[in-house]
Amino acid sequence: MKKSNFFYIIVAFSLIFISCGKKDSKTVLRMNVSSEPDSFFPWESAATDTAAIFYNIFDGLFSFNEKGAIEPALCESYEISDDKLTYTFHLRKGVKFHNGADFTSADCIYTYENLAGLNGNAVRSDMIARAVESIQTTDDYTFIIKTKNRIGGFLALNICPILPVGYSNHAAKPIGTGAYKFVEYKLHQKVVLEKNENYWNTANLPSIPRIEIYIMSDENAILSALQSKQLDIGQMLSAENAKTLVNKFQLFSAPQNMVQVLGLNNSIAPLDNPIVRQAITMAVDKNEIIEGAMGGFGTKLYSNFSPILGTYYNDRLSDIYKNDLSQAKALLNVAGYANGFDLTITVPANYRIHMDTAQIIAKQLSQIGINCKIQPVEWTTWLDQVYTKFDYQATVIAFGGKLEPSEVLRRYYSTYKRNFTRYNNPIFDETFDKAEVETDQTKRIKYYKYCQELLTKSAPAVFIADPNNTVLLRKDIRGYETYPVLFYNFAKMSFE
Question: If you average pLDDT over every residue of the chain, what do you get?
Fold first, then answer.
């Protein structure tokens, strides 16, 4: 793909800007992200890269560790009633927001009233709104939630950021209780954080004073910045390029609990026909994509679930649709498209892996008569056009990882506002509803596995792979860890 001159100007300016800093600094950690932050107001953000930064600025009632286990954060302890409907959270004392305000239950009331759409507020979180019936507080450090039904994974929903009551300027200057404070954001350039000297979590105090996060998606620019010591961490790299620098840097490559898909708009012809979608699925060679776009560093998938989610993962789906061009052509013939059709694949241009994948898919689909046009767009355009307005035919994107299965599968619930594939299956909805309220773990697993089976068979998207995040780090960086959701945990990092 030919990039615009504007793109190269941005890359060049970013490198010049980075080079102004001291090389091999022990007080500043510099890394890159691939996409522009969509919003620093948590209630208005949907981007995975942005959330990975959020986790450093904000805390929720709960957090998670590198294994994905839920742990208390601003909630010090909790009790669940015998009927599994009432949750009483005992909050930490002595916690301060970055503006010096004390954290109390009033902040929880303010946050959850907005998330759940209570007291006339607009709903900010469909998941919380579906779950929460009422909230109350008995004192400054007790917060009580009553749920509408039993919800097996309710605690995992409460990693959402707690915001200070009455403060709403997060888009310009987000304020939380996290390990790092927001300093500035320069469009197309960088996000700057500084460590919170008064962080409440003494077991996880940050040691690096300043974090600079550069918006850089061009791989050659990232590799150049690493070699010239203008970046300390370079991520979202191809395995092939990363291997060439393995002697100079630490190399990490691990699955991300992400699901790369060829998303199909199920509400428009001919993609509203499941037989057409099945034909497309059978024409896509996932092995070729993993080798060609991921350098072999990826895990083949068959539904919108990664094996990282362990017991919830349905491992019996691989034989439902195998790569078979002759069968794919036969299905198109049955659907009335023996001569194929034209298909536009809209792809966010800042993600090399998705652009490369789209090119491979276009070549593969041409073998069954589907003529693909690849339409690169800016990230913000993709969020508006595809993710919000559903104005597209097909797209290549990766769904960010989640800890709770309901958050993963809700993307295909018929009435969910972010169901951008427009998938509509009453049986899926019914099974999902049962899983969400089930507290018996064995039954929950059964329901969620059936949801995955339904997705595989009806093919609302082509589920391709969980691509590894391949990262190069300065050799003296310690504490870098991978998580089952994208999270740059700067508080755990240090320079040797």
Answer: 92
